[in-house]
Every structure is written in structure tokens, then in C-alpha cells.
From TrEMBL:
Intracellular or extracellular location(s): Endomembrane system
Keywords annotated in UniProt: Membrane, Transmembrane, Transmembrane helix
Cellular component, GO, one term: endomembrane system
The protein's name: HTTM-like domain-containing protein
Transmembrane domains' residue ranges: 32-56, 147-166, 178-202, 241-261, 273-300
Primary location recorded for the protein, binned into one broad class: membrane
Tagged with keyword DNA repair: no
Species assigned in the record: Blastopirellula marina
All residue ranges annotated as the HTTM-like domain in the record: 22-304
């Protein structure tokens, strides 16, 4: 009996692992994620345009040699490689030429033209912007760069793209389900859920998130905020600030854990919109907020709302049919 139990346990774990990673699914989800990542990457890359030469030219604030010195990459004992295509630009002309190629590649990736090739080129440029000056990195890069890498694996131009439009004009063949599409979605899901947990645990290590004052410190910063909510400090309204602070931590913990419960995904996705819209308005990190809201699509929350319920006869038939050994485990 004990040997049978461990056999069933092993089969259950192995089956769950295979079902989680090694399935095929439609590329629709990765195609939606391509649009989200492409829009955010385009905004991110375009934000360098006005001050590109000031930061990255040889006569700028962070020329190639200075970047290597600040990152420690000029030390022979330093084994971390910071690589960027912009290291090859030694004049403003070359710098803006590479910048133009990067913007065009990201735009083509967003609209889905020759996506299998362009996704790799666009990802290289996004990584190049981030690695050209790692000390300037903010909230977007740690999430955008891995998501771009994951999408390179999948046929993310299969739907909602110019490639799909051209394919439909030539033939009526359907797009087959893809193992790589499923793998890319799983990688994004795991990354996003762990990112939520990381943010929550980081907040739990800071006393201002425990005493409820953290949101006030965010509201009080006048430089980046898109809306002024400092009036919440007056009268009885500070209670709202304290509650908001604790709800931020609670939601990030709950999302990271309960997003894997399929029936809860639509509710958590809707709450994520309110969560990130609020934080984006008071912190000014609206690009990061757009990215976090868009990546909720990786969990396909609408699948629960659109799934057809089983009929009573089908449910009764399934209940009466004999189950194989271990099916109830």
C-alpha cells in the first residue's frame, strides 16, 4: 500500500509538472503580450531621444570608458559583462543612427511585421538601452527585458499583427497550437507572480509600510506625481492614507499567491488595474503601471468569464462514470 501511494504521488507530481510546462496552446496570449511589451518598449526607447547625446556620446555624461569604470567592468577580475550596441557609437551621428534603427525595430515588433526576426533585434536594442548605463535603470527594465526575451521564444506574431494579416490574405490555414507559446506564457506568469511577491516582501522590510506612512511619502513628492492628493493628510482623511498603504502590500502578496487560482484571476486582474492606476498617478511611474496592467493578460483572466458551464446531464454522467485508480488524488 505504501509503495502504491508513493507511485501515485510520483505520477501526480510528474503529471502536474508536465501539464504546467509542456503543453501546447494558442499563440493568442503571447500575441497580446507582444503588443503590450512593444508599446512599453517603444515609450522606453523613445524617452532617450532628447538627451541621447548628452548621456551616451563620447563628450557626454556617461561615455563608454566612464560607464565601464562606474560599473567596474574595466577591472580584469570583474566577470560580469555589460554589452550594448551603443558601445560602438563614437559620434553623435552613429549614436542617433543606431537609436533610429532601434526605434524602427521595436515599432515593427509592436505591429508584428517579420516578427520572428524583428523580435530578436528589438530585444537586443532594449537590452542595449538598459546595459548602456545600468546606473540609470529604474522600475521598467527588470521586467521589460526578461519579457522581451521570453517573447523571442514564441510565435508572438501569429495574431493581431501584420504577419497575421498577410497570412490570412494568402490562405485560410489556421495557426496550430504551439509548445513555445505555452512555455513563453508560463515564463511570463512565473516572473510576474514572483515580481509581485518580491515587491511585497521588500515593502515588508521597510518600517514605513508597517506604520502606514509609506503612501503619504509617495503622495508628498511633487516632482513626478501626475495628481496631487496631499489633501488626504487633512482632518480625518489620514485614515485613507494608512489603509491605502496596507492595501498595497496586501494586494501584492495576494496577487503573487492567488493568481494561480484560476477562478480568481478575473477579480485580481480588475483589482490590478485600480492598484496600478492609483500608484501610477501618485508616483509618476505610469509606464511601469501600464506594463504591470498589460502583463496581467498573461494569466488570460477572460477565459473564466467566457467558459461555458457544463450542463446538468454532462455533470451527472461524469459523476456516474467510473474513475480510474488515483483519479481523486
Amino acid at each position: 500500500m505504501l509503495g502504491t501511494y508513493f507511485t501515485r504521488l510520483s505520477n501526480s507530481i510528474g503529471g502536474g509538472w508536465n501539464d504546467f510546462w509542456f503543453q501546447k496552446e494558442s499563440p493568442r496570449t503571447v500575441s497580446m503580450l507582444r503588443i503590450v511589451a512593444g508599446i512599453v518598449a517603444l515609450i522606453y526607447a523613445f524617452s532617450f531621444t532628447s538627451e541621447l547625446a548628452i548621456w551616451f556620446s563620447d563628450g557626454g555624461v556617461l561615455p563608454y570608458a566612464r560607464t565601464l569604470r562606474l560599473t567596474g567592468a574595466d577591472d580584469p577580475a570583474y566577470r560580469v559583462l555589460h554589452w550594448s550596441v551603443f558601445y560602438f557609437a563614437h559620434s553623435q551621428l552613429h549614436l542617433y543612427a543606431l537609436h533610429g534603427i532601434g526605434l524602427i525595430s521595436i515599432l515593427l515588433f509592436t505591429v508584428g511585421f517579420q516578427t520572428r526576426v524583428v523580435s530578436i533585434v528589438a530585444t537586443l536594442f532594449v537590452l542595449s538601452y538598459a546595459e548602456r548605463a545600468p546606473m540609470l535603470s529604474g522600475l521598467v527594465e527588470p521586467l521589460l527585458c526578461p519579457v522581451m526575451l521570453y517573447l523571442c521564444l514564441a510565435p508572438c506574431g501569429a495574431y493581431f499583427s501584420i504577419d497575421a494579416w498577410l497570412r490570412d490574405r494568402k490562405s485560410t490555414a489556421t495557426v496550430p497550437d504551439s509548445f513555445l507559446a505555452h512555455l513563453a506564457v508560463r515564463l511570463v506568469q512565473v516572473h510576474v507572480s514572483l515580481f509581485y511577491l518580491m515587491m511585497a516582501f521588500a515593502k515588508l522590510g521597510n518600517p514605513v509600510w508597517w506604520n502606514g506612512q509609506a503612501m503619504w511619502w509617495l503622495l508628498a513628492q511633487p516632482d513626478n506625481r501626475l495628481i496631487d492628493l496631499t489633501f488626504l493628510r487633512n482632518g480625518e482623511l489620514p485614515t485613507i492614507v494608512y489603509a491605502w498603504t496596507h492595501l498595497v502590500v496586501l494586494f501584492e502578496l495576494v496577487f503573487g499567491l492567488l493568481i494561480w487560482v484560476r477562478i480568481l484571476r478575473p477579480i485580481l486582474a480588475i483589482l490590478a488595474v485600480f492598484h496600478w492606476v492609483g500608484l501610477g498617478l501618485v508616483t509618476g511611474h505610469w509606464v511601469f503601471a501600464i506594463l504591470m496592467i498589460g502583463l496581467s493578460l498573461a494569466f488570460a483572466p477572460l477565459e473564466v468569464l467566457t467558459a461555458a458551464p457544463e450542463s446538468a446531464s454532462e455533470t451527472t454522467k461524469a459523476a456516474r462514470s467510473p474513475q480510474p485508480a488515483g483519479a481523486g488524488v
